[in-house]
């Protein structure tokens, strides 16, 4: 019975995997920032419009990017998650945008590492 060695196959496969660009190459590395708003609506259109504004401003300032959201089932509260390269710059950048929307004027910004 002939034996086949899998070592060359595994080595070549692991080398090709380690040199291939990944979707994660474009992910911003940094601190997680949570923006909590009292939303008060099950229609998420205004929330998604706000998220688009926040994401565009954060990217333009090279301060971070949108990472997602969570919304209470009744729409009462929403958390917007952003990844910050520079937390202070991100907060400074998104502050005026949050103040411009009635439902996000009293938003709480929470940083977690």
Task: Give the amount of beta strand, in percent.
Answer: 25-35%
Please report the number of helical segments.
3
Question: What structural class should be given to the helix and strand makeup?
Answer: alpha+beta
Q: How many domains in all?
A: 1
Q: Write down the CATH topology.
A: Alpha-Beta Plaits
Largest β sheet strand count, sense and barrel closure = 4 strands, antiparallel
Description:
Strand 2 (64-71) and strand 3 (77-84) form a beta hairpin. The model is unreliable at 8-27 (pLDDT under 50). The protein is 38% helix and 26% strand. It is an alpha+beta fold and 113 residues long. It contains three helices and four strands. The chain has a four-stranded antiparallel β-sheet with strand order 2-3-1-4, covered by helices on one side. The protein is globular. The chain has one domain: Alpha-Beta Plaits.
